[in-house]
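Reviewer 2 asked us to include a model.

Predict the structure of this chain.
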Amino acid sequence: MIDEERIEDAVVSIIEAIGEDPTREGLIGTPRRIAEMYCELFSGMSVDPKQELTVGFDEGHHEMVILKDVPFYSLCEHHFLPFYGLAHVGYIPKGRVVGASKLARVVDILAKRPQIQERLTTQIADTILEALNPEGVAVVIQAEHLCMTMRGIKKPGSNIITSATRGLFRRSPLTRSEFLSLVQGR
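Predicted model (structure tokens):
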């Protein structure tokens, strides 16, 4: 459970620490707004993403299923600055499939936690593997990190790409190659 009152108090302290007046007209509601924003941005903390994958359909489908270009937004746990981009998720079912929106919800839930991109990629793959028990899972994430673009090294437009493969995607170079070519649009 997110403690909004503690966040508000902390934001007041930050405002004071940077030499501003938290009672100034433009800042009066800022601690409350930031607390509300954090509730939204970290709403994945109290949700089990596997629950999204409990409803499926026995379709006898044993071929690759890919949900491509899923936008996500997360906060880097090192600086609490956003990183955002696209996730591509694929799996090979053992006959049972889930709705595409369920895969997008898994991405969303896991992104709404303090994160690093590498962990997010792994968590998405492992959640799908554990919940669906497919022949394989593959996840590729491409994201821009504001902690790299607006501070520090200041390299806007640079992206980090991470991947995670499980099962058949890890064992079979052909399967992995098919996934990557479909994700890249070739």
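The longest strand covers residues 65-76. The beta strands are 56-61, 65-76, 82-92, 95-98, 114-115, 136-145, 160-167. We have added this to the supplementary material.
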